[in-house]
């Protein structure tokens, strides 16, 4: 009986997962992948950081009610105005440009949620990272969820809170570590980590897990009287290159966000994430393999398929 239940459960998982497919648009929009690749390449040529920003958009989309492009909806009650996204999430204009380019070769066929997934993959690849076949066939949601977006993983969360938030969307501890490796590219604002630089009297380093030799440069980038919007690289060594340097940094106490360093330095990390960080720091191929796996899993969080949702014409508004 137990065996039967397990087999039925596994079959159900296969059915759920197989709703997306790599060749979903092969007849309806055969040029899709080359159009998106071209537009992502153009955007990155203008500003290399855009690769990081596009990758993050897909994460912030998928973690809130699944990968349904709800993040892209305009409006002050939308997800863009939630704390983790406000003055932070970027790349919306690039998604508009990609969507317009896609619409001009195949109209009303490709969802904004799928464009986010392909753009994230291309951003990783064009930054020197691994590639994979993106599963497609998501449809776009009809509503945004601002309170859901306010509950996205925070740089101030403890490791157990982060692990719990990933578990809610079906991602395990290996996925937590592998996906955090996305912080091998991109920037973070001072407001999100400057509490780690000084103690309450404004001197010294209260966060003993931060390599003290890194503090002067971070303090210079984040002066005490500034508004917190200055930025520094999440990977202090190779900010534009998608490699395993982020994990080498963590082993050396050089993670920027507290939520990064906790993967290596917290007590809970000892029997959860620390050994995975160590493995990735010395073996980029294992990191790349696990990252690809985790991206495919994250891209498969509660997609709308079939007759659910719609194919948005303009990614910023639901169709009228
Ligand atoms: C583990 C939980 C995570 C936390 C707490 C977290 C937090 C953050 C924070 C605070 C920033 C800086 C935002 C700002 O400066 O306004 C950031 C940036 C970034 N995050 Fe994460 N993140 C997490 C996981 C992820 C995942 C899973 C991905 C993608 C797979 C990702 C991709 C990125 C990228 C690429 C950037 C740089 C964006 C840019 O430069 O525009 N993060 N993250």
UniProtKB/TrEMBL annotation:
Keyword Signal part of the UniProt annotation: yes
Binding site for Ca(2+) 2: 184, 235, 243
Role of this protein: Removal of H(2)O(2), oxidation of toxic reductants, biosynthesis and degradation of lignin, suberization, auxin catabolism, response to environmental stresses such as wounding, pathogen attack and oxidative stress.
Superkingdom as given in the UniProt entry: Eukaryota
Name listed for the protein in its UniProt record: Peroxidase
Molecular function in Gene Ontology: heme binding; lactoperoxidase activity; metal ion binding
Signal peptide coordinates: 1-18
Binding residues for heme b: 183
Binding annotation for substrate: 153
Protein keywords: Calcium, Disulfide bond, Glycoprotein, Heme, Hydrogen peroxide, Iron, Metal-binding, Oxidoreductase, Peroxidase, Secreted, Signal
Active site: 60
Catalytic activity annotation: 2 a phenolic donor + H2O2 = 2 a phenolic radical donor + 2 H2O
Classification of source organism: Eukaryota, Viridiplantae, Streptophyta, Embryophyta, Tracheophyta
Binding-site residues, Ca(2+) 1: 61, 64, 66, 68, 70, 79
Annotated compartments: Secreted
Heme is among the record's keywords: yes
Cofactor note: Binds 1 heme b (iron(II)-protoporphyrin IX) group per subunit. Binds 2 calcium ions per subunit.
Gene3D superfamilies reported for this sequence: 1.10.520.10, Peroxidase, domain 2
CDD domains from the UniProt entry: secretory_peroxidase
GO biological process terms on file: hydrogen peroxide catabolic process; response to oxidative stress
Cofactor or coenzyme needed: heme b; Ca(2+)
Plant heme peroxidase family profile domain boundaries: 19-319
GO cellular component: extracellular region
